[in-house]
Write a structure and sequence with these properties.
Helices cover about 35% and strands about 20% of the residues. With about 160 residues, it is of the alpha+beta class. It has one domain (about 40-155): Cytidine Deaminase, domain 2. The radius of gyration is 19 Å and the shape is globular. It holds the Pfam family JAB.
């Protein structure tokens, strides 16, 4: 098989996968508006958490946006597990009917082929990581970077 036919078949496989999974490529504007997705509004997030619109509609969330960094961390962690299950936490926020995953981190857990058990050290790690993450400051803007509470487990 020559290189040309391999690359064209890989491109076709990727296009097929993207069509079957409704993948939409997001165009990034070249202005400062592209960073708006990273803005965290305490008041809006608190109100959303209090209203809980997903409680009445189990299909409320229809879209997920995952940052490239979070995706890379999840893939590296999953690959490092080999055939053993892994566990980690995704962090982010909500925006209407979308869940925005901004970060992810691996948990120090012991896994087998059928289950992963989080012990006390994993829970302590989650708390320490989340607390430290909330304390990061941007020195140029004197504002606090915020990432919402944990969104979901990944296996």
């Amino acid at each position: 098989m020559d290189l040309f036919s391999f690359s064209s078949s890989a491109a076709m496989a990727q296009q097929t996968w993207e069509l079957e999974n409704n993948i939409v490529t997001m165009e990034t504007p070249q202005s400062s508006d592209s960073d708006a997705i990273f803005h965290y509004d305490d008041v809006a997030q608190a109100k959303f958490q209090q209203d809980k619109p997903w409680a009445n509609d189990p299909h409320y969330f229809k879209r997920v946006k995952v940052s490239a960094l979070a995706l890379l961390k999840m893939v590296v962690h999953a690959r490092s597990g080999g055939t053993i299950e892994v566990m980690g936490l995704m962090q982010g926020k909500t925006d209407g009917d979308a869940i925005i995953v901004m970060d992810a981190f691996a948990l120090p857990v012991e896994g087998t082929e059928t289950r992963v058990n989080a012990q006390a050290d994993a829970y302590e790690y989650m708390v320490d990581y989340s607390t430290t993450n909330k304390q990061l400051k941007n020195p140029s803007e004197k504002t606090l970077y915020k990432i919402s509470s944990s969104l979901a487990w990944m296996l």
